Amino acid sequence: MPDSRRTNWRTDEPLNRRRLLQLGALTGLGSGLQRLFEAQAFGNSGGRKARIKSCILIFYFGGPSHIDTFDMKPHAPAEVRGEFKPIATSVPGLAVCEHLPHTARVMHKVALVRSLNHNMRLHDAACVQTLTGRVPARGDGENFVPPDEATLFPSLGASMTYLRRDEHLTVVNAALPYVFRNVVPTPCQTGGFLGSAYNPFQINGDPETLGYQSESLKLPAELTIERVAARTELLRQVDAGAGLAPGAASLRLREHYQKAFDLLGSEAVRRALDIEREDSRTRDRYGRVTGMNGAAGGTNGAENGFARNLRGQNLLLARRLVEAGVPFVNVYDFRQQGQNWDAHSKNFTQHKEHLLPMCDQPLAALIEDLDERGLLDTTLVVALGEFGRTPKINKDAGRDHWPDCYTSVLAGGGVRGGYVYGASDKLGAYPAFDPVSPGDLAATIFAAFGIDPAAEIHDTFGRPFRVAEGQPIGNLFGDGLV
To answer: What pLDDT was estimated at residue 156?
Structure first.
């Protein structure tokens, strides 16, 4: 049985402070510039050993059923165990759902945390807690309305960008395929109280063409790449003509402009987004779905009853971004091909026909592809939803929201393959032992990057906060987290 523990810009117009802000707006960089004039440097790695260079966080919005995927209960009553059967995996004694055959093949490279839990029962609040590692300040009510972004905790990737802001990386945190929303854009996807300078590099995916683009890489008509490439003179004029005294604020503004112009001229990022460069067999490997079940769009590559899908191509793009040197990649699996994971009715039909095939094949392909390219050891893959589903099946053959116990999948980055940490009780309702919070998972991710969870991030008023409130799950890794 498996262990179950534990850019020069020439212009005839003088460059003053007002003009700088106008120029920033032209290139999509205007938001948050005011705060950048007063920005100060903070942060501390804590001297930990970095195990990974990148993290791919796959977020299944809506909440997959843990009982019908990675924590099956075949001996529970019928109203709990459901319709699906467990199948053997590459790890003796470790079973998963019959509709996850590809993932079953790579379970020796996968670790499961079966004891995740929190108290947020609605999507928005649960997403906040999952993707920031913090309990939402407004709690979990029917009238949950996101406050101003500047009052929110940052996403994990935004905190990573803040802590690594002095490393001259073109992109630290990317998010795709688009901003996800419930009724309004779901909070927890941005820089929050760190400021908009720490928002992710947002990538949009087209489900019809299976292509990708980012507004951040679009130049004004009058601005060419060549003008972007000669950025040094602009930065010199910032200091000489904007009336800014030398110091930390001036330096920080220069650095943010430098990063912005680096991005506009970044060939590596543009190449990564050009997924057509990828071999067609590799693209097929990530998402050819038989019978086109649930494929509302995404028919690129369709032939002989098969179709590529956006879900799979998103993970392929994530791998390409890792290869391009992006440390943190968020993949938001949200209402694509007509479905999300919120299966209040017809849970088994939705999982079998729409959801699991478009999750299973791409996830396994990502793990294998990273491994074959020598990237798996330095890339941590984390896949989860904001909660699980109720143990008991409801009258509509569905399962409802259940944050009391659910499962996260991890692979790469030195995690112990075939390992299970924590456990649910016999009905999959509550942790039986070793409960894990979203804060613990956040701390684990930061620790794997070599960042002490106690390292500080600061809001725009300079108030300090730990980067993560939880404790790292050292047992997930072969030699722990030191």
So the answer is: 98
Distance, in Å, from the CA atom of 24 to the CA atom of 16, rounded to the nearest integer, reads 12
Q: Measured at the alpha carbon of residue 294, what is the angle toward residues 429 and 203, in degrees to the nearest 5?
A: 85
- For residue 408 the two structure tokens come to 């996260």
pTM of the predicted model, to two decimals? 0.82
Alpha carbon dihedral 442, 177, 111, 48, in 10-degree steps, equals -40
Bridge partners, 206 (sequence order): 211
Model confidence pLDDT, tens digit, residues 307-335: 788 889 999 999 999 999 999 999 998 76
Between the alpha carbon of residue 428 and those of residues 88, 389, 433, the distances in Å are: 19, 9, 12
The bridge status of strand 211-213 relative to strand 204-206 is antiparallel
Cα separations in angstroms, 152 against 129, 196, 428:
11, 12, 32
Domains with residue ranges and CATH for the chain: 17-476 (3.40.720)
Choice among 172-181, 367-376, 403-412 with the minimum mean pLDDT: 172-181
Using only C-alpha atoms, the chain has a radius of gyration, in whole angstroms, of 23
Q: 221: which 2 tokens?
A: 């008509």
CB contact set of 96 (below 8 Å; sequence gap of 6+): 69, 70, 72, 86, 87, 89, 103, 104, 107
Contact 140, 454 (CB under 8 A): no
Those residues with Cβ within 8 angstroms of residue 481's Cβ, 6 or more apart along the chain or in another chain? 48, 51, 444, 447, 448, 472, 473, 474
Give dist(CA 387, CA 116) in Å, integer: 8
Closest CA to 389 of 61, 66, 74: 66
